[in-house]
Amino acid sequence: MRHEVTTTIDAPADLVWRTVKDIEKWPEWTPTMTEVRLTGDSLRAGSVASVRQPKQPARTWTVTALNDGHSFTWASAGRGLRMSADHVVTEDDGRTTVLLTFDLAGPMAPLTSLLVGRLIRQAVDTEAASLKKWCERTSR
Q1: For the chain, what is the domain count?
Q2: Alpha-carbon distances, residue 100 vs 10, 39, 40, 80, 140 (angstroms)
Q3: pTM here?
Q4: Which of 47, 88, 134, 136 could be joined to 29 by an S-S link, Cβ 3.0–4.6 Å?
């Protein structure tokens, strides 16, 4: 399963990137996160975070790639299931665009998609909408 959401945000790209990169503050702006704890002092490739989300067990996510100022990808794995999520911030002609992507893979991915795919899509959609609202309100 793969789900992508693109949203345009009426705020400077550097503000949007700082908001995306500061993962421990995500619970302040999105209801899809209740707690995010980063091991270490800053987000970088190899960073590990413990993430708690409503009605889900805590998961450990590892940053697999970071292009500072623009994007990061992190991944988590469980029995027969691999999850990854991309967070990409771009600016073109003064417009800031965010692309959020969530992927499920592995032997359990088809069943997981069937059982909770709709909830995953709703969560990613909510995160995009919440990020837009937060950044636009913060930039005024």
Answers
A1: 1
A2: 17, 23, 24, 23, 24
A3: 0.95
A4: 134
